[in-house]
Design brief:
Helix content: 25-40%
CATH superfamily of the largest domain: K homology (KH) domain
Number of strands: 5
Structural class: alpha+beta
Shape: elongated
Low-confidence stretches: none
Number of domains: 2
Strand order of the largest sheet: 1-2-3
Order of helices and strands: EEEHEEHH
Mean pLDDT: 95
Distance between the termini: 14 Å
CATH topology of the largest domain: GMP Synthetase, Chain A, domain 3
């Protein structure tokens, strides 16, 4: 799997994957133009939408009314080094969830690939390539 992140101007970038483009930027108060979510917010949005997808599939397969549910993600930073230290996702259901499905919905959310990845840290690397090759 591979995506490309192209510098646009200042702190603004475009991330492209399979023809889909997302603009990522910093807020104006830290020198950006505010034309897109910041990288950390995008990361948390990715986790929230991943959780939402798994919850949707669980509910749809069981005929649980789910129209209008949402996932809210909150996070806190730690310093030295600056990083996300804590994140919590809340699944907000539009009506009362039947008791027999409550734990299943949580387990479905925990199957999200990003959630799993954060529990089992992947190998990460960074390299520099001169001349635009790759």
């Amino acid at each position: 799997m591979k995506l490309s992140v192209q510098h646009q101007a200042g702190t603004r970038f475009e991330a492209e994957y399979e023809g889909h483009v997302v603009t990522v930027d910093q807020p104006e108060e830290v020198g950006g133009t505010g034309k897109g979510m910041g990288p950390v917010a995008l990361f948390m949005a990715a986790m929230g939408t991943c959780i939402g997808t798994f919850v949707y599939m669980f509910a749809a397969q069981r005929g649980i009314e789910h129209q209008g549910f949402r996932v809210e993600v909150e996070w806190e930073y730690a310093e030295n080094p600056k990083r996300v230290a804590k994140a919590n996702a809340k699944i907000i259901w539009p009506s009362k969830v039947p008791e027999e499905y409550r734990s299943g919905l949580i387990k479905a959310a925990e199957q999200c690939v990003i959630h799993r990845t954060l529990h089992q840290t992947p190998e990460l690397g960074v390299e520099l390539v001169d001349g635009g090759g790759g």
